[in-house]
Amino acid sequence: GQNIDQPTEMTATEGAIVQINCTYQTSGFNGLFWYQQHAGEAPTFLSYNVLDGLEEKGRFSSFLSRSKGYSYLLLKELQMKDSASYLCAVDNYGQNFVFGPGTRLSVLP
Amino acid sequence: GAGVSQSPSNKVTEKGKDVELRCDPISGHTALYWYRQRLGQGLEFLIYFQGNSAPDKSGLPSDRFSAERTGESVSTLTIQRTQQEDSAVYLCASSLEYSSNEQFFGPGTRLTVL
Asked: Which pLDDT score, from 0 to 100, does residue B1 have?
């Protein structure tokens, strides 16, 4: 079966660091996406991990462990505009894309 | 350049009617994806096209749903005999090629079935 788990909601303070976890069990795996979705808007791409390890892109970093079926998105120096839902999605190669339920992050002043 | 566009942006229909949703991908993108997002929920993958071909249609919720793509461009998602549970935002995305490339999302079509 296909299963992706993320925390439903998280809260953090402006300027802090937050880690959003994602665990997955899918019948196939080619890579893992992270998307950001502000309320009422379409998702926008953040990162795509294929190999194990950490990939850093500005304030955002994404980590993948294929053996553990685990990924996280790390957001540093949080800003109010980072308040959004963060979607983890598995590229189930040749079959489909499976999205997690999303984590709603609230950044407080 | 232009992004992914979808039409209509909003559609209100009566239960039992057919609806057709349209997606115009970014020019040159060979892969096109359809998703459904119910209020407050995550994205549900429906179908993807590589060129004009849809290799796997098993993500479509029922046989009332169908999709086609012509000329490696425009795609339409058709829902026949709509039901209230079909109410959702239908998102279309495109990418240069299937799988490893970033998907660019359209603004979505908000479908309300009364």
From this structure: 54
